[in-house]
Amino acid sequence: MSEPRRLSLRPVRPVLWLALLVVLLALPLYLEAAWLKAGQYMMVGAVGAIGLTMLIGQAGQLSLAHAFFLLAGGTSYTVLSGPTGDQRVLGLGLDPGLALLGAVAISTLLGLAFAPVAGRLRGIYLGVASLSLVFLGLYFGQAAESLTGGTSTGRPPATFELFGFPFSNAGPEIELLGVPLRQAERVWYLFLALTVIAFVLARGAIRGRTGRAWRAVRDNEAAASVMGVGVARAKAGAFAVSSAYAGLAGVMTVLWFDILKPDESEFGTYGINTSIAFLAMVIIGGLGSVSGALVGALLVNGLPQVLSLYAADLGWFTGTGDGAFTPALISSFVYGAAIVLVVLFEPGGLAAIGRRITGLLRTTHPGKDR
Amino acid sequence: MNTFLQLVVNGLGKGAVFALLALGFVIIFKATEVINFAHGSLVLFGGYLVVVTKESLGWAGAAICGVLAAGLLGLAVERLLLSRARLADANSLALLTIGIDVIITEEIVRRLGVSLPFIGEAWDARPLQLGGITLFRTHLVALAVAAILITGFYLAFRFSNWGIAMRAQAENREAAALMGIRSSRVTATAWLVAGMLAGVAVLFIATQDFSGAGLSRGTHSIALAAFPAAILGGLDSTAGAVVGGLVVGLVEALSAQYVSFDFAKSAVFLVMLVVLVIRPSGLFGTRESTRV
Predict the structure, then answer these.
(1) Domain assignment present for A281
(2) What is the pTM assigned to this prediction?
(3) If you measure CA to CA, which chain A residue comes closest to B83?
(4) What backbone torsions phi and psi does residue A268 show, to the nearest 5 degrees?
C-alpha cells in the first residue's frame, strides 16, 4: 500500500488531553467568578451532550426527550436532598452526594421505562414520540408542586456537599496559590470532575463491547441480531445510559441556577428549546463523537454566556424589549445556522473537520468512534 | 350533554386546522421522506406577512399574501438548501430543518416583540348560537376551508398529472425517475403546497376563538401539535393526516375540559404515544418490515 505518510498525532494525544486538563484545573486561579460561571454552564451542556451523542450517533436512536430527563434528574436531586419537614414541598433530607447518585439512578430507571416504547419505533417516529416526554415533563412540573415547587416560585436545591465539604461560600476557607476557593471555584472543580468522569466512561463504553453492539444495531438491526447482538437490550441500554447522563446534567443545571423552577410553557429550561439545543450540540460536534459533543456544548451553551459577559463589558446587546438582539437570540441564530451548514457540507460535524486537520483519519480504525 | 356536544364541535373546528398542518407534513414526507421540523416557522412566517401587509392591502389581500409567502418560503427552503444536500439522508435533512426552524422562529418572534396581533379578523369572535351550542365562526370557516382544500388536494392527488407523479415518487423514487418523472419538480411543489397549507392554517390559529392569543411563539407551539396529528395518522397517509388532525382537536378540547387545561397539551402527545406503541407506523401508515 502506497499510503501517503501523514503527520500522526496519535502518540501525543494523551499528552494533549492532559495539557487540556491542566489548563482547566488552573483556570479558576485566573478567571473571575462570572467567567467560571459561564464555564460551568458549558460543562452542564457537555455532560448532557455526551449522553445524547452516544444515543443518537452510536446507537442510532433519535431522541428529543433529553430536556425531560434533565428535569427528572434535577427534581430527583432536589427532592432527595431537600430538607424534611417543609410544609409546602417534599424533601427526604439525604446527603447531597447520595442524592446526586439517586437522581442519576432515577433518571436511568425512567430511561429504561421508556425503552420498550423506544425499541418499537425508529428514526423520526422515535424522535417525535420522545418529544411527548417533554410535554409530560411540562405537565409534571406544573402539577406535582410538592416535588417541583411549582412554576411560579420553584424551590431551591440543597447546596452540594461531599463528605461534609460544602460547595458554597460556607465552610472551611481554602486558598490555592493565594486565590481563595469560594463557591464559583469549588463548583467549577465539582463540575469539572463530573465532566471528566462522564467523558472517560463514555469513551470506555464506546470503545468496548457496548459501543460495538450499539453501532451494529445502528447500522443494521437485522444483521446485528444475526451476529448475536441483543437488539432490544442494546437499544434499551443506550437509552438508559443517555438518560443517566441527562439526569446528571439536570442535577448540574439545578445547582448552576441554584433553583429548580419548572417551565410555564414548553419553551424553557426543560422545554423543547433545550432538547433542540442538545441536539444542536450533538449535530454540530459530529454525531457519535464524544469530543465533538464537548465542542458542540462549548458553542451552544457557551456562546450566550460569553456574549452576555462581553455585552456587559462592551455595551453590546444591552437593548431590551421590542426587537432587541439578546445574547440568547444571537446564539440561537449561530447554532441554527451551524446545524444547517454541518448537514449541508460536513455531515461528520466538527469532529470530522478536526480529524481532517490533524490527519488522524488514517491512523484510527475506520468507524471506530465515528 | 350540551357541554360535550359543544366540546366536540370545538374539537372538530380546531381539528380541521390541525388536519391542514398535518397534511403539510404528510405531503412533504411522501415526496421526500423528510420530516419538516420547520413547519411551525412556515406558519409563523405566513402569519407575520399578514400582519405586516394588513395595513396596506386590507385583510383579504394580506391573507393571500401570507399564504403565498409561506408557500414560497417552503419552496425556497427546499430549493436553496435541501435540494443541495444530495448526499445527506432523509434523517439528516430533518435535522437540517430544525436548524432552519430555530433561525426563522427566533427572528420572527424578535420582530413581533411584545405585540401579539390577532389576524383572523374576517371571522373572529362573532359566535353564532345554535340550540344550546355556541358555534365559533373561526371554527366553522376553518372546517369549510379545510374540507374544500383537503378535497381539492385529494382530487388533484388522485387525478392530476402532479398527483400521479407524486404518488409514483412516493412509491419508488428511482423507478419514478427512470420513468421520466422530474423528481425535483414534484418535491418543489410538495414544499410549496405544504407551505401554503401552513399559511392558511395560521389565519385560524392566531385568533381569539382558536387559541385566545395572537401571533407569537405560542402559535409555533400550536403548530407543533400537528406533529402528533401527522404521526398518529401515519406519516405517509393523507387520510391519516385528516383523521389525526381531528383526533388531536378532539383530544385537546375534551381533556382541557374534563382533566385540566394544563394537561391538554400533554394529552395530545400521550394519545400519540399510545397509538405508536400499538401501531408503530400510525393508524394508516405503511408498516416497514425487515426480512432476515
Answers:
(1) yes
(2) 0.89
(3) A344
(4) -150, -155
